[in-house]
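Data deposition worksheet. Section B asks for the primary sequence of the deposited chain exactly as it was used as input, without tags or linkers unless they were present during the calculation. Section C holds the resulting structure in token form. Section D is free text for depositor observations; keep each observation to a single sentence. Incomplete worksheets are returned to the depositor.
Section A, Depositor: J.P.
Section B:
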Amino acid sequence: MTGFTALVLWVFFSVLLYFSERDNHDEEVASYYRTIPHAMWVTLLNLAGESPLSNYTVVGKVATGIIGLFASGLFGIPIGVLGAGFEELVEEEDDDNQEEEEGGGQQTGGKYFGTGQEHACFCFVNGEGSKIASLFELLSHSLCLITVVIGIVQTVPGWENFLGSIEWIAVIFFTIEYALRLYGAPSDPDFGGEHVDSHTARICFVISFFSFVDLLGIAPFYLALAFPNSWIAANDFYLRLFRIVRLIKLDKYFPSITLIDDVVRLKRKVLTVT
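Section C:
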């Protein structure tokens, strides 16, 4: 679980530093960030606590400063506090599981919000209810990973058009997925409710964080087609790389980020002192 979190942070900061440092006036610094694979090596050193370069841009300095906090702050001084927090959470989960077993595992009866069709769409895009739904969700996460990897490879000179046709497939798939999520929003506990109408639930979904991330992955593609000579057309590739944030949704299966958040909340007072 911690390995998954480290992977997401590694790729995220590598992409960020690639954007900020590839045109650095210092040729030596720029050479280390000329492609995302090159940037990943230096970023890995930064996350390990090393700082082999110093002449960064302002954005680069802020990014490496945050990396420094992750490297020495999160995994250094308060490591004992976090370890104790993990132990407490595991004990609490064990107690909760034991209480559920003793209580006979009673459920609430399967109540849901929205219409039957809205609930079906919500379950389908979240991989619930059938094998086809599970395959759909698996395909969504796989396409996200594949397109991010392709985007990284395409930053290498001579590989700019590497598997470009996959992008069309991914955009069509993500568009269908977004439409289904939008339609099923009233049945999502995060947006719908007993006293929330369908229109309000969908508006809440549209302005949510993950909706913005999903739109950032598909909207630039359509805007680039509609306005071929615009700024978006020239930079839509870089905007689509932000699909990496969609990987946070895998927290459903690898609850590393949620677990770390729970531990930090549990030990926030002690961590503030440290």
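Section D:
Residues 14 and 40 are 5 Å apart (CA to CA).
The chain has 13 helices and no strands.
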